[in-house]
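Subject: Sanity check before I submit

Could someone independently write out the structure tokens for this chain? I want to compare against mine line by line before I put it in a report. The sequence has 444 residues.
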Amino acid sequence: MSDEGPAGAAGEVAQAASAAASAVTGGWRRAGLAGAAIGVIAASAAAGVAIDKLTVSRGMRRRARLALDTAGPFGSLRGTPGRAIADDGTALYYEIDEADEADEAHEAHEAGDAHASAEAAGSDEAAEIAETAEIAETDGAAGGGAPAPTVVFSHGYCLNQDSWHFQRAALRGRIRTVHWDQRSHGRSARGAAQSGPDPQPATIDQLGRDLKAVIDAAAPEGPLVLVGHSMGGMTIMALADQYPDLIRERVAGVALVGTSSGRLGEITYGLPALGANVARRVLPGVLKVLGGQAGLVEKGRRATADLYAGIVKRYSFGGQDVDPAVARFAERMIENTPIDVVAEFYPAFTDYDKVQALAVLLRTPALVLAGSDDLITPSSHSEAIADVLPDAELVLVEGAGHLVMLEHPDVVTGHLLDLLARAGAGGFGRNVGGHGSTAQRPGD
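---
Independent answer below. Compare away.
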């Protein structure tokens, strides 16, 4: 039992919830609906936080967060840096991980050994070995000598390129990859159009043009495989909408993870109908006000760290057994996104509709993957995308939440490798080595 005691813990939860509501609704005291909507969200997270508070002291929780910040390699992978310039002058940061030539030579050597084994084997066995070698050669050479594709990863709202940590680790050195930070996120500059003398709202179409600028700078030639999570998937659809010839001529595969092609205004975020309707009406205005009080809001985040962590975990993961270091890693990425950036991007989702753009992807090998318990972009939105792309592989990861690539990286990476094989970059197999599940196991 903690030194705070049950009563003290319960009181602290109440104080944290009150502080969070005050931080969020400061200047909106007459807008009671806004406070009510935020309260519904906070209460659902506070219930889980209260249990922890009954057994763990505040100081211990703070020390645990500091320890988790340094635990594991999450977010530590770095590549060759570069910058692309968007059409409004925004500097977009990207990193390239090159394929290891020695690894490619090893795969070719293995294919040659397979042919030698076929010659030494009996007729039936030889035919089977030769067929396997032929498939491996064809996959590894991207269709008999064509260059292997460059894989371009686009991250989601309030995240950064490090959100693909496990997939990046699994592919590192095996194929050329590009990881970039969306404007105003990660190491990219604040959007010039959003921070100039006449600020413009961020749009998904702008993000599509940003992705084109990154491709032009980091992968100007050769086939591409585009991988996008949440807002990153929307970015890919916006690219397809504006540059259909690029998709038809160069894109060999597309992975749309935990994303949507539209109708985002219907999402309830796991709230009761009344709470969801209220939140949809008031949240844009609340965020706009908060965007002008960034310093105050950041203090509020720190003051209510436990409650904030509970909210992040509820809306990021579907299960309760996620590695605490991974959960803290996700929390850290989200909390590093300034509130004014959150505010300037949120309206972009209101009118977002790229259903028609999916037609451009009809002939492109595609993976559509989502967590079954995703509260941000429900799996029904992935099913709707798959309905338009009947040849796409649809994967619903049971029990997973929005950050499925962090919660079940083995599943996501395995299906991504399958997509790469269909796109002409096979030879990897399904083994993801030490980059598998992040769920805690008995005895951990």
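---
OP: Matches mine. For the report I'm noting this point. The first helix runs from residue 5 to 25.
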